[in-house]
Amino acid sequence: MLALEDAPARDFLKALPGLLSERPKAILVVSAHWERLRPALNAPERNETIHDFGGFPPALYQLAYPAPPSASLARRAANLLAAAGLPADIDTRRGLDHGAWVPLLVSWPEADIPVVQLSVQTRLGPQHHIRLGEALKPLREEGVLILGSGSFTHDLSSFRSSGGRIDAPEQDWVHAFAEWMVTALKAGRIDDLVHYRTRAPEAAHNHPTEEHLLPLYVALGAGPERIRQLHQSTTYGILRMDAFAFG
Is the pTM of this model over 0.85? Predict the structure, then answer.
C-alpha cells in the first residue's frame, strides 16, 4: 500500500534518489517475494508488473512499472555468482513482483532505469545471502544499485491488532526485535545478525518465516565495511520499515 498511502516510509522512498551520490545505471533488486531453490535472475523481453496479492483496492491493480530489463546485467550477475560457487539460473519470463516495483515506483516513478530481480533461497538462511552479496559486490563499482526489499518485521497474522490504522502504535514485541537488529547492524555484529533467530528477542514472532528479512543480508554482504541507518518508521503498528545503506 506504500504505492498509494501517505506514510513516513513513502516519504523516505521519494527522497531516496537524492541520498545517492549518483543516479544508478541499473538496479539489481532482491525481493522477498521471489523464492527459488537456487539463485535466479530475471531477463524477460519486457518487465511485466506482477500484482502478486489479493484483496486490495482496485487502484493498486491499475499501477504498472514498465522498467526496462537488462539481459546483460542478468548475465553479469549470474557469472559473478557462478565464480563464487553459487550457480544461478536466468528466467526469461518473469517480470517484477510487488517487492520490486512498489519501492521503485515511489523512488523512480519514470521507470527509466533498467531493473533486474534476484530471487531468495529461504531455506538456506542469512549466511548464504551474505555470500550472494559478497559475490555481487563488484556491480557496485559498475554503477549498479543493489537494493534489498523486504520488511524489518513481518508478522501479518497480527495485522488486526492495528485496527486498520497505518499510524497505530508500535507493538512492544516489534520494538524489541527491531531495536536489537538496529544495534547489531550499527555495531557490525555480523555473527549475531547471522544467528538472529536464536539471539534476537521475539525473532520468530516478527519473522514466522525468514524470506522478508533475507534481502537485507544480500545488501549487507555487498557492503559490510560501513553500515548507516537511513530511515526508521512503523506502519500498522507491526511493520518496521527501517532502511540502511551499506558500503
Answer: yes
